[in-house]
Design goal:
Blueprint: H1 2-12, H2 21-30, E1 45-49, E2 57-62, E3 68-73, E4 77-82, E5 87-93, E6 99-104, E7 110-115, E8 119-124, E9 129-135, E10 146-151, E11 157-162, E12 166-171, E13 177-182, E14 190-192, E15 198-204, E16 207-212, E17 218-223, E18 229-235, E19 238-243, E20 248-254, E21 257-264, E22 272-276, E23 281-285, E24 291-296, E25 302-307, E26 311-316, E27 322-327, E28 330-335, E29 341-346, E30 355-357, E31 363-367, E32 371-376, E33 381-387, E34 393-397, E35 402-406, E36 410-415, E37 423-427, E38 434-437, E39 443-450, E40 456-463, E41 469-472, E42 482-485, E43 491-495, E44 502-507, E45 515-518, E46 524-526, E47 532-536, E48 541-546, E49 552-557, E50 573-578, E51 584-589, E52 593-598, E53 601-609, E54 615-620, E55 626-631, E56 635-640, E57 648-655, E58 661-664, E59 670-672, E60 680-684, E61 687-690, H3 695-698, H4 701-708
Antiparallel strand pairs: 1-60, 2-3, 3-4, 4-5, 6-7, 7-8, 8-9, 10-11, 11-12, 12-13, 14-15, 15-16, 16-17, 18-19, 19-20, 20-21, 22-23, 23-24, 24-25, 26-27, 27-28, 28-29, 30-31, 31-32, 32-33, 34-35, 35-36, 36-37, 38-39, 39-40, 40-41, 42-43, 43-44, 44-45, 46-47, 47-48, 48-49, 50-51, 51-52, 52-53, ...
């Protein structure tokens, strides 16, 4: 195989030279007859990149099989991870607002999530299908948040706990409401007793009530704490109670009451509880304490303490011996017996900011946290990386030798040959919040603010070559997170931060707007001929106006009329751009989609499903054939959109935080730098496999090249 791979590499270097027919024939002969029939299996092979959580995790739980981990992030994500390797293999969309709580059924087939919007979703894990969608809060509740989900040990019921008037018991069979329980206060606790039809309810003042799950008949009541109960848990048929006073007690559960086994009053106030069944260890933790006590479950003796700051969620591994700890946007694994960290999974801080095609459309420049990556569209390789003094947003190619890039206060020209540092074209001489350079880097619009909280703004137009101030607007009681300069340098557009504030178009040399429309925080962009301006309304309606007078020209809806409002986000679109010809407009945002419309033809619409929920900036090739779409995770997708009815995902470009790179076709064939492969795996169904298991089959630079050529 080693010799064969070398022959393929030799052919790779000449395959795009049309005059070398022999080498081209050799490469084609190596390619399977149907490049899109990678496998006969029902489960396609898909590349995945090792990553950490997308935000602060509010809930963690290990699946019964011990191979997977459920995480609930506060950034709209309910993810299922493989515990071996840290690969996120499933992603459950939760709708409008982030999920906060969750739980796994005892057989591992069902996941229930509780949202900050009050929704309780029951999922089938295998096919990621929503089985039921219910609403926890009642009319008059002060909060929608669902703080806890608790499954019964037999898997027949689950409870949702919030901050309102009632806690609720639901059927895990059909998701229907079984019972409403008057809440004793915010964040009270419920615990199901194994092998029985009884649950224990925090009824306030340190007292629990044992009641029938369905009809609520009480069998006994017991005082278990001298203070407010923080959490009730049943482990190994024992009730464990933590209180706001730092007390932990363990009780034997009997038919007619509870019997105290031990009590310790020197613990974390308001601590949460977890249990390692293998070693019979009790774990207490809190998001305000840097200490995690490990306690002997039978005696109450403190065995050791794990030091970990910023803990937001925790759970033991199913087989015991390890703790999964979410802290500071990381997912860490600790050895419970030594208290030492074993491994940490962190989302790569690669980022992507700004993207541009070269004049010949063969090179793509993408801004990253390291500088600027240059990708060859025609060869499927990362040609090189350009160093910048700080991260830059790629704006455009000035010519075939230079890129215009910028940050919050600097505009620079970056040479493509990489043999010299970037040249600073313009640098702010006054504090600025936002800037918008022209594509050729000759002019810059900056936003300045004043007032105690920066709530009053004005814009200034600068000559980038001389650094001279050309003109400033009047001050307005607004803050502009989006600002744009037209291609002809005659118009400026601003979009206010708060809903209800206007989006305005200004003429250079006039201190007040030409016209405004009420809207809110919205991306805003001019057409290449500067005659039109596009912006987004709160619900995802894209509107195009005449730049001169604000006359409406056309509308494009992000959400189809047939889609349920549950899946709508209030701010779905974060990026908006016209193609270089002005024939198309693209929008992308936080719904896992990039969408393209043909201007003046609302029916010609392309929807591109993206690999990530968080879709970044996009740009078109000069002939509108290609669209390159970026993402926060460092994976960009190249699409061929010539045929709007059949858009084709051509290839994905991946940059890794350690400097490695890979290009991967939709069928999983790839080429990569040697150091990149340890960060790559392949998903088959809901399992992830290290790259080594598919390397001989899918590491095919020849196929990647033929597809691109």
């Amino acid at each position: 195989m080693r010799c064969s791979r070398r022959r393929q590499t030799f052919a790779l270097s000449v395959a795009c030279q049309p005059q070398i027919f022999l080498s081209l024939f050799f490469v084609v002969a190596l390619v399977p007859h149907d490049l899109h029939s990678q496998t006969s299996s029902a489960s396609p092979i898909r590349p995945i990149v090792q990553s950490g959580p997308g935000g602060t995790i509010s809930y963690l739980e290990a699946f019964p099989d011990g191979n997977r981990l459920l995480s609930v992030d506060r950034d709209d994500t309910v993810g299922i991870w493989l515990t071996d390797g840290g690969w996120e293999v499933q992603h459950l969309p939760v709708g409008n607002d982030p999920a906060y709580s969750g739980a796994i059924s005892p057989d591992g087939r069902i996941v229930v999530s509780g949202g900050s919007d009050g929704r309780v979703l029951r999922w089938n894990v295998e096919d990621e299908r929503i089985l039921s969608d219910r609403f926890h809060p009642e009319k008059g509740d002060s909060s929608l948040l669902v703080t806890k989900i608790v499954f019964s040990p037999d898997g027949k019921y689950y409870a949702s706990i919030g901050q309102g008037q009632f806690d609720k018991i639901w059927s895990a069979i059909d998701g229907e409401l079984i019972r409403k329980i008057p809440a004793s206060g915010e964040n009270c606790s419920i615990a199901f007793i194994a092998n029985s039809s009884t649950l224990l309810i925090d009824v306030g003042h340190g007292t629990v009530s044992a009641q029938d799950i369905v009809d609520g008949r009480e069998s006994f009541e017991a005082q278990v704490s001298t203070g407010k109960i923080s959490e009730l848990k049943v482990f190994a048929n024992r009730l464990v109670v933590s209180s706001g006073k730092g007390e932990i007690s363990v009780w034997e559960i009997k038919n007619d009451g509870l019997s105290l086994l031990w009590r310790d009053t020197e613990n974390i106030p308001g601590g949460y509880l977890a249990y390692d069944a293998t070693d019979r260890l009790l774990i207490e933790w809190s998001n305000v304490s840097a200490q995690i006590p490990i306690i002997d479950f039978d005696t109450g003796e403190k065995i050791r303490t794990i030091q970990a700051t910023g803990v937001s969620a925790l759970c033991p591994s199913t087989e015991g011996g390890h703790l999964f700890i979410a802290k500071n946007d990381q997912l860490a694994v600790y050895d419970i017996n030594t208290g030492l960290p074993v491994r940490t999974f962190t989302r790569p801080e690669i980022g992507e900011d700004g993207v541009a095609f070269s004049p010949d459309d063969n090179t793509i420049a993408i801004g990253t946290s390291r500088g600027i990556d240059l990708w060859r569209r025609d060869l499927g390789i990362r040609d090189r990386s350009l160093h910048t003094s700080t991260p830059r947003t790629v704006l455009s190619f000035l010519d075939s030798k230079h890129i215009i890039a910028y940050s919050d206060s600097v505009v620079s020209s970056v040479p493509l040959n990489g043999d010299g540092m970037e040249q600073i074209i313009w640098q702010a001489s006054e504090p600025t919040l936002e800037i918008a350079p022209s594509l050729d880097g000759t002019q810059v619009v900056s936003e300045e603010t004043r007032g105690k909280f920066g709530q009053v703004s004005a814009w200034t137009l600068w000559d980038a070559k001389t650094g001279n101030k050309l003109f400033s607007s009047h001050w307005r009681s607004e803050r502009w997170p989006y600002i744009a300069l037209s291609r002809d340098h005659n118009l400026i557009a601003t979009s206010a931060q708060n809903n209800g504030h206007p989006q305005c178009v200004w003429r250079i040399q006039q201190q007040d707007p030409l016209w405004c429309v009420n809207g809110g925080s919205s991306p805003i962009t001019f057409s290449p001929d500067s005659r039109s301006v596009a912006l987004v309304e709160l619900g995802g309606e894209i509107k195009v106006f005449k730049s001169e007078d604000g006359t409406p020209e056309e509308n494009h809806s992000w959400y189809p009329s047939t889609q349920s409002g549950f899946n709508h986000k209030s701010h779905p679109i974060q990026y908006l751009t016209f193609s270089q010809t002005g024939a198309h407009i693209e929008a992308s945002g936080f719904d896992g989609l990039a969408q393209v419309w043909r201007t003046n033809s609302p029916t010609d619409h392309i929807t591109l499903p993206f690999h990530s929920q968080y879709v970044g900036e996009a740009t078109f090739s000069s002939d509108d054939r290609y669209l390159i779409v970026t993402a926060e995770d460092g994976i960009s997708e190249l699409w061929d959109i010539r045929d709007p009815r059949n858009p084709e995902h051509v290839i994905s470009f991946i940059s890794f935080a350690d400097g490695g790179w890979a290009t991967i076709t939709p069928d999983g064939y790839y080429r990569a730098s040697p150091g990149a492969l340890h960060s790559l795996a392949f998903r088959v169904g809901n399992r992830a496999f290290p790259f080594e298991q598919f390397d001989l089959r899918l590491n095919r630079p020849d196929i990647v090249l033929v597809l691109l050529c």
